[in-house]
Amino acid sequence: MSGIYIHIPFCAKRCTYCDFHFSTTFSSYRERMILSLKEEIILRKNEIKTPIQSVYFGGGTPSILYEEELASLLDAVHKHYAVDEKTEVTLEANPENINKNSVLAWKGLGINRLSIGLQSFKNDDLKWMNRGHNNTQNSACVKTVYDAGFNNVSVDLIYGLPGLRNSEWEGFLKKVVRLGVEHISAYCLTIEDKTKLKHDVENKTIKPLSERKQIEQFEFLCSFLKQSGYEHYEVSNFALNKNYSKHNRSYWDRKEYIGVGPSAHSYSGKGRRWNVSNNHTYMARGTKTKHWYNQEDLSTDSVWNELFLTGLRTKWGVLKKDIASLGGFTSNEQEEIKRMIDKGDLIDSAKAYVLSEKGLLFADAISEHFFRVS
Ligand SMILES: C[S@@+](CC[C@H](N)C(=O)[O-])C[C@H]1O[C@@H](n2cnc3c(N)ncnc32)[C@H](O)[C@@H]1O
Ligand code: SF4
Hints:
The chain is α/β, with parallel strands linked by helices. It folds into 2 domains: 2-251, pyruvate-formate lyase- activating enzyme (Alpha-Beta Horseshoe), CATH 3.80.30.20; 300-368, Arc Repressor Mutant, subunit A (Orthogonal Bundle), CATH 1.10.10. Helices cover 39% and strands 22% of the residues. It has 15 helices and 15 strands. It has helices at 30-43, 67-80, 100-108, 123-128, 135-147, 166-179, 196-202, 211-227, 246-252, 279-283, 300-311, 320-325, 331-343, 357-360, 363-368; strands spanning 2-8, 52-59, 83-93, 113-119, 153-159, 183-188, 230-234, 237-240, 257-260, 265-267, 271-275, 293-297, 318-319, 346-348, 352-355. The strands form 3 sheets. It has a 9-stranded mixed β-sheet, with helices on both faces. α1 links the parallel β1 (2-8) and β2. The longest helix is centred in the middle third of the chain and has 17 residues, at 211-227. The two termini are 30 Å apart. The relative contact order is 0.11.
């Protein structure tokens, strides 16, 4: 299994909390960027040896693209790669870009999964987050995509927002469950450097939610979605009827994928590569600059660290056979494992070590206990 991630580095406006790579002033070079993305897709066609099972348009805001632009990128993928007939083709879509015409066009292009950034159902929050949609559009756009015949829909929500009451969060989750979406990604708000949110928190015009409330909201998220039939398969991801995201799974399972576009990451099994996070440097590749990406071969220690970093975030955990293939635990690590099991953070299942629900809350911090430094 392998995948292609295509990063669309454009957004209509800047959300206050977001530090993903994008530009809001792209009209003068939009066409050139699409050509550049297309060229990179073709340039890297020999890097993938197995059939593509996931094509993922992420961003930025891929739903901002015109139908012809998406068509030309997909055309390049189909012409130059072996694409499995059951390939999951996902488009991240913002609610304000969803209407009858756009969804029918996406469907016609073979896009068969939408990941919709609802974020919140509270208009005041959508306003300070500088989102381009309101609460009414949230519910309406999900209905629009189902009416157009989509049957694999994911929504993104953010909890732990400043001032968000537990009762409000519970109401949002009840709404998405009623909408019947196949997949939910729910992220706890992180205050990223160089964002307006960080600036407002530092200037004390915004007060972050307490950690206690964020934990309560995570706990409700886990218990309510479980009781509603969703499988909690990764810290922030929940699936109905095994509708896991193929794109995310290939990342957590360390399967090979190529990331096309500025800031996109790639993984070959042996090494990682990441493209420059600058639209103009990216487009100038081959002419003005050769330095449009960096790469590193993975050392045995990095493979080990990633095994824990990615594995412990999922319900499948870190497989014992993978641990054995890398030489097994040291005696210190074995003691650490025992300590975590006794504390109730980790479960020793037959084939793997898996985090408990309590442990999942601190997955990244726990995996760091197993990191090795060469
Ligand atoms: C690539 S981003 C945005 C996709 C799309 N452009 C949108 O705005 O809906 C993917 C998701 O990451 C989440 N996200 C981005 N910044 C975040 C932050 N600072 N804290 C928590 N979640 C965040 C949001 O839920 C967002 O939908
Ligand atoms: S959250 Fe989405 S729409 Fe908002 S700035 Fe980030 S990528 Fe763009």
